[in-house]
Structure formats: structure tokens, C-alpha cells
Amino acid sequence: MYGINGSDFPPVTEDTFCKYVLYYEINNSRVRIWDLIILIPNALFVLFLVVRFNKAQLKLRATSSPIFLTFYSLVWGNVIISLIRCGVSMTVNASMPFGGLVDKILWVTVRFFLLATEMSVVIFGLAFGHMDSRSSIRYVLLATSFISLAFTITQGTLEIVMPDDIFHIDTRDYDLFGHGGMLFWFTSSLLFAIIYFIILLLPWIPLRDYLALPTKLSFYLYILLLALLDTTQAVGAGLLAWGSMQSGLCVVDVTTWLYFSLYTPLVYHTFLSEFFSVSQPSIMFSYKAQMDEPMEDDQVSLPHQQSFSSLKTDSDYIYQQSNSVYDSTLFEAGGTTPMNPVYSASLQSPDSIVSGQSIEIGGPSTFHNQHIPST
């Protein structure tokens, strides 16, 4: 029996491209191609986050909902730990026992952060109506962290104690990271795929009447992508364990690169991009909806008030009181996230504050109902 952890076939020969790319070092510099192609997209995404950091900080300070800060923190944590793994793997000698152990521990650590984020996002999406407090979010993060910890400990134990011979390099006598072996990889990927497909079916089964399901299409597209990814990964691991090994290794190489390189940007794009972006068409539509509403007689302001309040600065568009522009998640069933009153008052521009004061002066209906003689 060749495979200790679920594989009955001889190891993949080193001359196959899909295995060669996993351990080939550029000019014997310890910089492996596999680490480099994972490092590049993560580094570009960090650069993107840094460029937009100031705008993101202002938006986070202007909302009282902790869910956005949670997502943003998870995104930063994932991409930083991925960069650390790539950097350390490029400096240690994986062919040495200590270097190989460090490399595997870092892989398992990255998997822990990504899996915890993956489960947290799903729970937040399905139960957002009950998760808009710091305590509930903390409980979800603790629960998902414990589940992810159990998963990664199992994966790490299998990886260190019973490495899969499919990922053994005979010429250098060391083992690549095999994700816990093909049997474990196949079983876990298939389980996650089933869970995601069940979530996709929830809006079409009678159980939907008892659940406050998300209404945003982007949430279900996110779930569909993960379901397809896990299904493809299960097929590749199954081919490695019980079928054509070379094609199976190519399949899991692609799915692994997609998950460890593009999953974190996917979370950002699905759940944070709309919140952090200042979309002028959305703002104009919001204002247009307000202007199209009929005005009552007692709401008509004086001419000087009307012209003065019509002046808008850039901060008015960023810190407007309406939360419908950016204070809603893409999986929210309905309603909006409340604005923090402290930041609502402190982050307004001087024009908007003066405008608000002028409206309050002319606010009481008794003042407008009085008959003022014309001069």
C-alpha cells in the first residue's frame, strides 16, 4: 500500500508539471514558484487595501454597526497571515526537517484563518438580523474559531504524523504540504460542498417561511462559488486517491491557488466594496428620491434658507445621514444599519451643520402658519 493516508496508488512522478510547480525553486534560491504565484495576488490586494485605508477608516468610524469592522478585520488578518506564510516559506529550507515542519504549520495556520472567516461570513449572512451587536458577533467568532481550530488540528496532525506519499519528493527526501491527505481532503471538501448547496436551496423549500433569509443575489453567488470550488476540489482529491493521479493533482492545484489567493478579495468584493465605495449615481438617486416627494406647505423654507442649504460639499456626500447609500450589507434582508449619533454630529461639514440649524429655526409649523404681512 503506497498511500498511508487514503491513497492506494504509487506517488506521482516528479516529472509531471502539476507536481513540479509545487516544489521547483527559482535558481536554487528557496523561492518556490508555488509560493510566488500565491504571494503576488495577496501582495497586490494588500496594496489595494493600503491605498483605500483612509477612506475605509472614515466609513468605519461613521457607522455604529460592528459587522463592517468585523469583516474588515478578517480581511486584513487573512491577507497578512498569507503574506507571512509566503515570506517565511521562501526563507526556510523545506527539505530540512525543521524547515518542512515550519512550512506545514504555516499552511495550517492560513487554513485556520480562512476557514474561520468562511464560516463566520455564512453565519453572519444567514442570521444578520440577530447579529448586529458586539456580543453576538463575538460569540460567532469564538464558535467558528473553535470549529476551525478542531479542523486544522486534525489536518495538521494527519499532515505531520501520516503524510501522504503522493506529495513526497524522492529526489530531496521531504514531503510537500498535502492538506491532510487525499481522504481527509476529499471528505472535508465534499461536506462543505453539500452544506453550501443546502444553503442555496433554502429559498425554495418550505423552511424559508421560518427563516429570515438574505435577499441579495450577491450572497447566493458567493455561496455558489464556494460550492463549486469545494465540489471541484473533492473531485480532484478523489481522482488522486482512487483514479487518474496526474489530472487530479492538476485539479487540486488550481482549486488550491484560487482559494489561497482569491478568497479574501472575494469576501471584500462581495460584502465590503459597496460599503466602502462612494457611488455618485447611488447618491444622486437617493437625493432624487427625496426631492421627488411632495412638500407640504409647512415644510417650505425661506428663500435664503433654500439656496443656502442647497450648497453641498464632498463631506456631505460622505457623511450624509441617510444610511441607505452605504450602511447596508449585501446579505441584509431589509432595513438599514443605524448611524452612530456621535459621528453623525461630529463628522458633518460646516455647511450641512449651518443648513441643519437654519431648518430648525424655521421648523415649527406655527411659524409658517402665521400670516406675515407683505411689505
Automatic annotation (TrEMBL):
<feature type="transmembrane region" description="Helical">
    <location>
        <begin position="257"/>
        <end position="278"/>
    </location>
</feature>
<dbReference type="Pfam" id="PF10160">
    <property type="entry name" value="Tmemb_40"/>
</dbReference>
<comment type="similarity">
    <text>Belongs to the UPF0359 family.</text>
</comment>
<feature type="transmembrane region" description="Helical">
    <location>
        <begin position="139"/>
        <end position="162"/>
    </location>
</feature>
<keyword id="KW-1133">Transmembrane helix</keyword>
<keyword id="KW-0472">Membrane</keyword>
<feature type="transmembrane region" description="Helical">
    <location>
        <begin position="105"/>
        <end position="127"/>
    </location>
</feature>
<feature type="transmembrane region" description="Helical">
    <location>
        <begin position="33"/>
        <end position="54"/>
    </location>
</feature>
<dbReference type="GO" id="GO:0005886">
    <property type="term" value="C:plasma membrane"/>
</dbReference>
<feature type="transmembrane region" description="Helical">
    <location>
        <begin position="219"/>
        <end position="245"/>
    </location>
</feature>
<dbReference type="InterPro" id="IPR018781">
    <property type="entry name" value="TPRA1/CAND2/CAND8"/>
</dbReference>
<feature type="transmembrane region" description="Helical">
    <location>
        <begin position="182"/>
        <end position="207"/>
    </location>
</feature>
<protein>
    <submittedName>
        <fullName>Transmembrane protein adipocyte-associated 1-like</fullName>
    </submittedName>
</protein>
<dbReference type="GO" id="GO:0004930">
    <property type="term" value="F:G protein-coupled receptor activity"/>
</dbReference>
<keyword id="KW-0812">Transmembrane</keyword>
<feature type="transmembrane region" description="Helical">
    <location>
        <begin position="66"/>
        <end position="85"/>
    </location>
</feature>
